[in-house]
Write the structure tokens for this entry.
Amino acid sequence: MPVGGPRTPLRVAIIGSGPSGFYSAEHLLSQDDVNVQVDMFDRVPTPFGLVRAGVAPDHQKIKSVTRVYERTAADDRFRFRGNVEVGRHIDHADLMEYFHAVIYAVGASADRRMGIPHEYLPGSHSGPEFVAWYNASPLDRARTYDFSGFRAVVVGNGNVAMDIARMLVLPAEELARTDMARHAVTALAEGSVREVVMLGRRGPAQAAFTPKELREVAERDDVDVIVHPDEVALDPHSRHDAEQHPDRNRDQNLEILRELAARGDRGRDRRIVMRFLASPVSLHGTNHVEAVEVARNELYRGDRGALRARMTDDREMIPTGLVFRAIGYQGVPIAGVPFDPLAATIPNEAGRVIDLLDGSPRYGEYAAGWIKRGPTGIIGTNKPDAQETVETLLQDLRAGHLQRRVPSRRVLARLVGERQGDLTSWADWQYLDGVEQEMGAEVDAPRIKFARVETMMRFLGERGGS
Ligand SMILES: Cc1cc2nc3c(=O)[nH]c(=O)nc-3n(C[C@H](O)[C@H](O)[C@H](O)COP(=O)(O)OP(=O)(O)OC[C@H]3O[C@@H](n4cnc5c(N)ncnc54)[C@H](O)[C@@H]3O)c2cc1C
């Protein structure tokens, strides 16, 4: 009986329930000519990856993309198995034994290093961990932050840095009406941070944030966005590029930044100070961060024409006890799966995992999303990316590379249940989702998120099991 035929479903494990996992499932389940079953695993009890644990709490509209994923989950060929971590409860060898194919859609959850002295002094934090903490990820619930100082420094110049800066300066009443974790709302409300300095390595023309995010803070009446006029004036290289190569995002950013520089300080008591051509050189402090030493940079044209930053001797100290490193995410390896340490991705060709050393194909193993291409792109970027991976998988199926016998779903369920007693199903998630929304409605918030696995399990237990 061919795999994928009427009697022998193609059994696919998808590891990760973020956008790339769900778009992979959607594309697999939309194949009319292939009989397929999808089992999706996630290490946390709740689905949706960074849509739940990354996207900013005040950007609710963006999160409504989960309705599309809910439609996929409603397919009776789909199973969700939450709170099951690959590498802990089940491993790569299990997946290869129980499935014809596995798609790794595990994202890129680690942060990148700045590579400067005293980078990890207490008070200096990973941006990705902070984002996960304020979004109620149970993996990050136990973290603590000291918001008692006036100033925080965010290293980075992209949308994640902008999200972090905004969360630090928004008034507590406003945060309370979002789905921000309640522990974060309380801690920020009790804190005294009123100024956030964002440090961008390159100039305003190279900033990675989008005009929409910049405009969002620029248009607030209760927050000043301070931009130094001399830092928005373009250097000759950037001016040349701006004249030769139109770029809508860049040009809009520059326009807004110039307006902000002209507007100056309006004396609001909360402010975001956007610095450009400024790199941290070292953190200073005895037992805790006390200041960031910053070098002024200049731009030069590097290989292939890209503008790069290099430090000058011009230095300054920015006193602060709170630093967030928001210079990018990176993937982490999974035991038994090839990993490219330089790109921090799973090496692949059109989604099919390949051996790192000789490039040979590993039929039956695939990657999608951030772990496939690196941590770039918006939610929608993951759709064509996942479709490409699934097309490669189907090509391998048709070429006969996935023809083997695997145990039934019942046997799989027994294995997973033995390894992790506290796993969650889709019905469990729907119950938790309902409770979160009900609790939110009482306080005029979209939801109050569960932030602890034990609490989720208690609620599920009290409901009477699933
Ligand atoms: C802070 C932030 C804000 C963003 N805001 C926006 C925005 O406003 N709009 C927008 O369009 N895009 C936004 N993005 C980008 C968007 O979130 C990503 O493009 C997208 O989430 C990547 O999808 P993914 O499926 O590859 O990874 P993820 O969304 O990270 O999903 C990976 C999943 O894999 C699970 N997992 C990891 N390891 C294991 C394991 N070993 N076993 C089991 N499960 C595992 C994780 O728990 C997670 O659920 C934002 C990103 C960040 C970081």
The chain has a mean pLDDT of 96. Residues 382-398 form the longest helix (17 residues). Residues 109 and 331 are 6 Å apart (CA to CA).
